[in-house]
Specification:
The structure is a homodimer of 393-residue chains. The first copy, chain A, is an alpha/beta fold and 393 residues long. Chain A contains 19 helices and eight strands. In chain A, helix 5 (71-83) runs antiparallel to helix 9, helix 9 packs parallel to helix 10 (179-192) and helix 10 packs parallel to helix 11.
């Protein structure tokens, strides 16, 4: 069923990271100003393969890690290109401004949160996208710039959702560089803009959300009852050494190390004792963390017994199950899905594609055909996302 | 069945890593000279719970990642304590020389590759241990010291195997600091000492075996038809930043990052095209790599299509299945085992306990009771190890 269809697709990822060390694209795309609809995309695929939401009846396909970009964000990246001349973040941002085939394909898709995107969603059978500002978001900017671009991008996002309330939801960008202001923006994003959660692209200048300076952000997320999605970015430059060869700093390995480490720090730090109703979302099937549940619980207990370390009220896995949801973004593997259902439960798993970097139709084919219970499929496609992001049903 | 028995056990691990930042143990153990038998250990457990090998008939329980130490090694660690005053390796080595309860328990167990260890193996139902010099082995020493201590330790190991040929096999320590001499020692270890493979404790001064300077080691392992077991150690000091808090540099997370990264570098580097019969062994259920099979193949192909990177003849997972074996050390999780059998096949999995850091009886209970086919259980307990390490059957 999926064989012949695969051949006509050419999905992309700029998550290869280390590649860009060799292939720096310094030119600026000419067409960035036009966030035009992309009518050709839908016809390039075989339409109507996905069941329409109404025919399916019992669930919507809600994709929860779907990227977009804004003009202010890209202009910010253009600016940092002037002073940031090396490293993963530089490569990561400048590629979108370049004139490579890749940039010409992806950047317009990222900028489009209107008709073109919706046409593609229709073609792929995606009912709703939960949008988030593409990585590394605003976290590479100076605090004042980050605050301004986050605010402006959140306004753009909220406007798209107002226009297409049944097709888009969204996570607010925040600037952890300034925790105090982040809280202001978080409150505005939920209470005034009606957004559905928050996106943080892992570390901010090498610092992680478990650190006390960021607790106001965690506290606000808990108080607002909206999750923080921790999205991958490159490891901090100084820690990147062992991961550089063969592009391993990127999506094949390093992003998971970075983001999984962020998740592990949160699990081990005690922030979930302090903020028991805080919810964190991790993509890519939990960034490797679920594989290690047995071992990290065991090692936590062993260290506590031998050395008196650790002051968590519960084993680390308790918080993984209570406070963390994982998504399927970029991990369309049935064995991994079944493993995660077994060790975490289906209530902790949400569907995600990672548009436009991954193929939404492949993501849907994967979950449509996975040999799991229909009750679990409904939770993963829609029920969990509706609950956690407070989506209208 | 396993509940009450658990209570009487106190297993240990010095793999907590970051803990030692807070609890440095600088004293020297008084009793290190006596590698005496430990008659109390066996009686502290309930004997005879494991089926004797003969009664089981169809397989031996062969544990493949079992640690020992030698006097020359510990004396070397004592010496580096004089000049190496910080960092994970310092902590890691000095702890064994200390007078903590932990050191008093574990160091004698590590030094004993005689009657005491065998009594414990009998109590735990372990038929054979494949011994390896405990991490970080000789890789923290200057080249000349490393070469001398590796050679001396290999002689000690070979002597223990000569005394107990049905109970012990062993992996030769090598000093990658000097690749040329490593090859000499590898040939001696197999052809003269009759050892069964090689142990490398991940990076050596921040360098990894995929780098061209180490190719002679890979070439020799292939020519000698013996595997290299890549055992965890701490990440290189300069990359350790994000992993330091909460002891996450150690066994709960950082060791897997380090060793998994080593494995990924080998998979992506092309060394398995160059040395197609080379075999690598990774503990801890493959150090996380098997979780990512879908994604790294997908990302490798995506990067190749978009950027022309990558020159492997086959997808990375091809080499994982052909050239890598994983072991159960410290990962006594049935869901993980079943997942790995599904994605890698039972031919690629070997049993290991990680004595004395983990409980061998728990490791045996885990595999005894795992709901897998009896054919797979036999392969994992003995068949694969016999084949790969050339053990006498």
């Amino acid at each position: 069923m999926t064989g012949p269809r695969r051949a006509v697709r050419a999905t992309d990822s700029f998550h290869e990271g280390g590649i860009m060390d060799r292939r720096r694209v310094l030119g600026l795309a000419g067409a960035l100003g036009a966030a035009a609809a992309l009518p050709g995309l839908a016809t390039a695929r075989q339409k109507n393969e996905g069941q329409p939401a109404k025919a399916r009846g019992r669930y919507r396909r809600i994709a929860t890690e779907e990227a977009f970009a804004t003009q202010p964000q890209l202009e910010g990246y253009r600016d940092i290109g002037k002073y940031l001349t090396q490293g993963a973040d530089f490569n990561f941002t400048q590629i979108l401004l370049g004139d490579s085939e890749y940039a010409k394909r992806q950047t317009p898709r990222l900028l489009d949160i209107g008709e073109g995107r919706i046409a593609q969603m229709d073609a792929d059978g995606v009912d709703m996208q939960v949008l988030s500002l593409t990585s590394p978001g605003v976290q590479v900017f100076r605090p004042d710039t980050a605050i301004a671009i986050a605010r402006e991008s959140n306004d753009i996002l909220a406007e798209a959702i107002r226009r297409y309330p049944t097709r888009f939801a969204g996570l607010a960008a925040i600037a952890p560089q300034d925790p105090k202001h982040s809280v202001v923006e978080m409150e505005r994003a939920i209470n005034q803009l009606g957004l559905n959660g928050f996106i943080v692209n892992s570390h901010t200048n090498g610092e992680y959300l478990d650190e006390e300076k960021f607790w106001p952000i965690l506290e606000a997320a808990e108080a607002l009852d909206r999750p923080i999605y921790i999205h991958p970015r490159s490891l901090p430059e100084e820690a990147l050494g062992p991961f550089r060869p063969y592009g391993l700093g990127g999506a094949a390995w390093g992003y998971a190390v970075e983001t999984g480490t962020h998740g592990m720090r949160l699990l081990f730090s005690g922030v979930f004792d302090r903020f028991p109703r805080l919810r964190i979302v991790l993509g890519h099937m939990g960034e490797g963390i679920p594989y290690w549940v047995y071992r990290f619980d065991h090692m936590y207990a062993t260290a506590k017994r031998n050395w008196g370390t650790g002051s968590l009220k519960e084993p680390p896995s308790f918080y993984l199950k209570r406070n963390v949801l994982i998504t399927t973004s970029g991990m369309f593997s049935e064995p991994v899905l079944k493993y995660c259902i077994e060790v975490l439960g289906a209530d902790n798993i949400m569907w995600a594609a990672d548009y436009p970097y991954q193929d939404s139709r492949e993501a849907a084919d994967f979950l449509d055909s996975a040999r799991i219970s229909e009750a679990d499929r409904i939770k993963i496609y829609s029920g969990n996302a509706e609950r956690v992001f407070h989506l209208k049903t």
